Amino acid sequence: MSNNIPNIRVGQGYDIHPFKDGRPMVLGGVTFETPYGLDGHSDADVLTHAICDALLGAAGLADIGHFFPNDDPKYKGINSQELLKEVAKSLKERSFIIGNIDAMLIAEKPKIAGSIDQMKSHIAASANIETDQIGVKATTNEKLGSLGRAEGIAALATALIMKI
Ligand SMILES: [Zn+2]
């Protein structure tokens, strides 16, 4: 890339996990008191996984599954904030700073609105940025398809990063 063009880069992330009874429900590092959670090898924090992939993609790195394989016992049940910290560290090592992250949860349940500020605090702490650099929004799938039937939760994320 030419030296006089600012090295601003964008990345996108997507993730989806199915609901499972008796599993923890962790979204953006916040644990919800629900009898069901999300199934997965780690804590299945779908929002944090999408954010990790957006950051990795923006840096031109491989996806989250490459760095934290879901058949590696090391990551079984792991708090995904630890994965986000690793991703933020990888970016920092490559001289990237994070401009902002915007993310969207697509879920019929649980009720998310009251926990968004707390999610932003967790994500900001893990990514080593300020809460006003993070957007977290939630919507339903209007009862359409698997997400609409409340079979799981999906998340989308976009990240803007700059090389310094
Ligand atoms: Zn995931």
Structural overview:
This protein is α+β, with helices and mostly antiparallel strands and 164 residues long. Helix content is 29%, strand content 32%. The protein has five helices and seven strands. The strands form two sheets. It has a five-stranded mixed sheet with strand order 4-1-7-5-6. Strands 2-3 form a two-stranded antiparallel sheet. Helix 4 (116-127) links the parallel strand 5 and strand 6 (134-139). Helix 3 packs across helix 4. The longest helix has 14 residues, at 80-93. The chain starts with 7 loop residues before the first strand and ends with a strand. Bound molecules: zinc ion (ZN). Residues 15, 17, 40, 46, 49 line the site of zinc ion (ZN).
Search tags:
164 residues; alpha+beta; 60s Ribosomal Protein L30, Chain: A; 5-stranded mixed sheet; 5 helices; 7 strands; binds zinc ion
How is the secondary structure organized here?
Blueprint: E1 8-21, E2 25-27, E3 30-32, E4 36-38, H1 46-58, H2 64-67, H3 80-93, E5 96-106, H4 116-127, E6 134-139, H5 145-148, E7 152-163
Parallel strand pairs: 5-6
Antiparallel strand pairs: 1-4, 1-7, 2-3, 5-7
Helix pairs in contact: 1-3, 3-4
The chain binds zinc ion (ZN).
